[in-house]
Structures are given as C-alpha cells and as structure tokens.
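[09:14] KT: can someone run the structure on this one? pasting the chain below
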Amino acid sequence: MAKFLVTGGAGFIGSHIVDALIADGNDVRVLDNFETGREENLAQHGGKVELVRGDVRDEEIVGECVAGVDYVYHEAALPSVKHSLSEPKVCNSASVDGTLNVLMAARKAGVKRVVYASSSALYGDSPVLPKREDMWVLPSSPYGVAKFTAEMYCRVFHICYGLETACLRYFNVFGPRQSPSSVYAGVMPIFITMLLSGKTPTIDGDGEQTRDFTYVDDIVSANMLALTADDAVGQTMNIATGSQISVNALYEEIDAILKTGIEPKYGPPRPGDIKHSVADISLARKLLGYEAKVAYAEGLAKTIDWSRENLM
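[09:31] RB: done, structure tokens below
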C-alpha cells in the first residue's frame, strides 16, 4: 500500500483514478477546489478518501497535501480552450503556477514520482497527422500554451533535481461523470443530455472536425502504468486510441442509440478549435505497454447508460 495525492481528484478523470487507487488498497488524499469537481464523484468511497478543499495555486496548501505522500497524480486544471481565450491569466495560473507548486512541494517532500495530465491541445492546428510527441508544437490557445509550459517544468524538474516525472497527453476523454453543464464540458455529454431531454444540440462548424475519443478507463490504465514504468521517467506520451471520429459521426451514433431523430443545428466554428486530431500512440506502447482496450462503441454505450441514470 502506498500514499497518493490526486490533485483535481473530485473531477471527471481524477475521480476515476481515485477509484483505481482505492480498489488496489492504497491510501488516497484528494486536493480539489470544486470549481469543476463534485463531492458525489467520491461518495462511493465513504471515509476512505482524505478530502482537502483547496487550490493548487495556493503554495501552502499544496505543500501540506504533498507532505507524507509517495506519489502524486496531478490532474487539477481548468480544461477548456474556450475559457482560456477569455481568461488567459486564470488558465495560466491554474496550469503553470499550480504545476510549479506541485513540483516544488514534491521535490521538497521526496515524492517518488509525479504523473502529470497534459493535453493534445498543445499540438494546435498543425495539418500533420497523426500527432507525434516529437512534433514541433504550435498551440492555438492559451490552454495549449499553459499545458506545454507545465510539461516543460516537469521535464526540467527531472533533469535538474532528479524528481521522477511522467507526462501524459490526453486526447478527448469521455465517460461517466463528465458534466454537461460545466463551462468546460466536452461535446459528448452535451449531445447526450440534450437529446435525452428532447432538445436540439448545436454543432460548432460543419461537424467534419475529427477527434480521437478515448474512454476514461483507458486513461486510468495509462496512469497506472506510468506510475511504475522505468522508461516513462522524464518522458511525454500520447494517450488515446489512434483513431479518428468526426463530430457529425459522433452525433449520428448517439442519436442512433437514443432513437430521437432530432436533427442538429450548425453554428460558427469555435475560436481556437482545431480541425483534426488523432494520436500516434506507439511511444506509449513502447514505454508503458499501453493499449486502448475499450472500444469506442462500448464506451459510448456505457456513457449513455450512466447519463440516463444520473443526469436525467
């Protein structure tokens, strides 16, 4: 049994990581400011999770939370390209200052490894596909810039101070607990809840933009692997499926399951949005032994079932 800190551990992805850690019998502390996280995401664990209400931008609180832990999963962020365009300083503070606080505290406390949640947003709208970790990054939003900067801090803390770090670039994660009501909501939970309510969703742009939709269980699997893989130290890896699905196709598949027959509306493209995104996951295969095991259709069905039971 080990002691873990999960920043943002009451959020969508963070709470699933907490589930896996608790299932393995570990001692888990969560730091969350509940801007996007929800207490009910951890309710199933009762008193097994030590919950600290606070912000990664608060250096003192971060230091207190990191003290005494063996490993850190750093998931806390404001995960929205759109929001970062209107509030770039807030985005930078959360991702860059927050990450620096975590790394400094981890170094001081002698943490064995920090696993950082990065994002495919830092690739920007480069036409080169699939996205590879050795590509020149060209972020098209403050969010992408902040994530890349935080990655560089992880790398530097490993090189300069010997702190073991590993960065995982997530691609369009989906699954249960993803909120449709947050300003940071992804397209999938919005489509699902609107169609379940008989409402007409709006697709931004022409809907032909493509994404590498990755079920949350595969993201958790990658995080567990990154904790112990020796070759992952100091590295950055794409975590995805390696396949593309258009937003139009996503909508059609959701509607086919729900059988609503509602035709979507189309609006202007979102500022800062990228047209196509798909990952090359060969490096994660090599360094982690990672494979995406949950088929897209299976994950979508599970997500819709959860939404029916919990959001309606």
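[09:33] KT: thanks! The chain has a mean pLDDT of 93.
[09:34] RB: yep, looked fine to me
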